[in-house]
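Blinded run. Sample ID left blank on purpose so nobody reads anything into the name before looking at the predicted structure. Input follows.
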Amino acid sequence: MSRLTGSPDKFLPSEWKHANQVHFRSSEAERAHSEKLTAECQRLIEESNKSTKHMQQDAQKKLEQRILDIKFWRQELENKFEEMVQEIESLIIFKSRVEKALESCSQPFQVTLQCLTEREKRVAIDLVHDGVEEELLKEKEVIEGVMVLLQRTLEQINEQIRLIRSVKYYLEKDLQDKFQAERIDDFCSLLTNTSPDLKEGNSNLSVGIAVTPEEWESLCNLNISKAENEKNNSLSLRALVASLLKQTSADMRRQYEATGRAFELRIQETKTAKTQLENQLNELLAEIANQEKNLEALKVAIAEKEAPLKVAQTRLSARSQRPNVELCHDPAQMRLLAEVKELANHIER
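Blinded prediction complete.
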């Protein structure tokens, strides 16, 4: 019982000192480790702050560069879009010119057909295949060719307008997308660590369609290239249409003038022939009048021969009554017979 209630074992001073030294060394080690950890944490904080600042600056620069890229391509697209709008307006003007030219061919064509129809009413020998008819047929052929060519050109203009409107649609769509992208990137570039309403989002965001910057730029170039190509096609078509309108107008004018010259020549020939026929008619009428006078003169001459013939015949009749030997075939008898014969011959002639 005395052992149970006795004093605890006591340590030696050396043991006490040793135990304190152990505590001191352990505490010193833990303190050194803590200082080292504190220094490491401070370095990590400074490094992460520096890295975060650098990343934000880099992201800000890339956003600004991206905005500049979007603005550049948006400006290029806007320029092409305006060019497409102007080109469509120009093509519509050319389309109107072609439609008016096609419409203006209708009346000359009808006039040519009417001329051909009217000239079929000529009669007898005047129904001749002359130079006028040849020129009218050429004029009909020229106008028909011009109308077919203008109609085909009108179809080409409509097709070109359709193609340019298609390019304009895709340019407009690309512009809208870039405008929205620029607006979003502008918003992002203005965000700071102190901006209100910052949201904590998922860092593993996925996008629907991801394209590389090279692909993005290639798509922009593709739309611009299509626009440039259609613009060049439109310029070539407009130049062709302008030349075509000028050439067809010149062809129709040249054929119109050729037909007019043929008409003038034919009219002059007809007038000359008509004048000659009228002169001949007048001469014939004068000759008929002369012949009528001549006929009257012949009738008078015949009438004038009847009395001498009757005298000669009466004489012969009277001398045939001579008696006997007096009925002699004397010179008087011979002369009377010759006179009757010659008078009868004159009358017959």
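Unblinding after everyone has recorded impressions. The helical segments are 13-104, 106-119, 131-190, 213-319, 331-348.
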